[in-house]
Amino acid sequence: MSKRRIFLIVLDSLGIGELPDAADFGDTGANTLKSISRSEKFSIPTLISLGIGNIEGNGYLGKANAPLAAFARMSECSKGKDTTIGHWEIAGIVSNEPLPTYPDGFPSDVIAEFEQLTGRRVICNKPYSGTEVIRDYGREHIQTGALIVYTSADSVFQIAAHEDVIPLEQLYGYCKTTRRMLCGQHAVGRVIARPFVGEYPDYKRTPNRHDYSLEPTDITMLDSIKAAGKDVIAVGKINDIFAGRGITKYEYTKSNSDGMKLTQSMLDTDFDGLCFTNLVDFDSAYGHRNDIDGYASALTQADKEIAEFISSMSEDDILMITADHGCDPGDTSTDHTREYTPLLVYGRRIRPVDLGTRKSFADIAATVCELLDIDFETTGKSFALEILK
Question: What predicted TM-score, i.e. pTM, was given to this entire model?
Answer without folding.
Answer: 0.92
